[in-house]
Amino acid sequence: MTATSTATALATGSTREQILAAARGFIETRSYLGFSFQDVADAVGVRKASLYHHFASKEALGIAVIRGATQGFKDWDAARAREPKDALESYFRMYRNTLKAGSGMCPAGALAPGWDVINDELRQAVQELRNTQVTWLTGVLGALVPVREKGKKGPSVASLAAYVFTVCQGALLSARMTGRVDDFDDAIAQLRSSLPG
Q1: Model-level pTM greater than 0.90?
Q2: Residue span of the structural domain in which 118 resides
Q3: Cβ–Cβ < 8 Å for 121, 67
Q4: Which end of the chain is more exposed for a tag (fewer CB within 10 A), N or C?
Q5: Count of domains forming the chain
Q6: Cα 83–chain centre separation
Q7: CATH code for position 132
Q8: CA distances (Å), 90 to each of 79, 176, 181, 195, in order?
């Protein structure tokens, strides 16, 4: 969800959509531990008690946000017919622009700092988002990486996909620390140059 779509959801969506948009915005900019139900209620303009009508707990809200991000990624992929190289470039742009490099974080990545204090179901939702992206990257990179000659060593396509995901997450984190999208771009340029094909 982009900043524009978050603002639109807050202005025009159902109360549930407004709650989800506000929570996602807080997660991307403050982390999961950096906001409360009261913050969400204030952003949406409802009483805190009204949030419980839609979500039984902050964890349930977090799970809904992460599952929405996973579905958003699947919808993003399904909406595009691209060559593998174009698909990979589109993935990098999605991280840069949709996830707001320099001013925001991936909602899944934003939960990592509190990993030991979030519940198992929320952790599983984060892992599902990661696995969905790594599986997608495995398919894209599998089409780009030449078939290895027998006996030749090198990383598997799956480990290469995990590496791409990790660098994108780290590049977002670094750019968030500096507030400079150029730091994201520099990291992705180095990533591109390290990839085969």
Answers
A1: no
A2: 3-194
A3: no
A4: C
A5: 1
A6: 22
A7: 1.10.357.10
A8: 12, 21, 16, 16
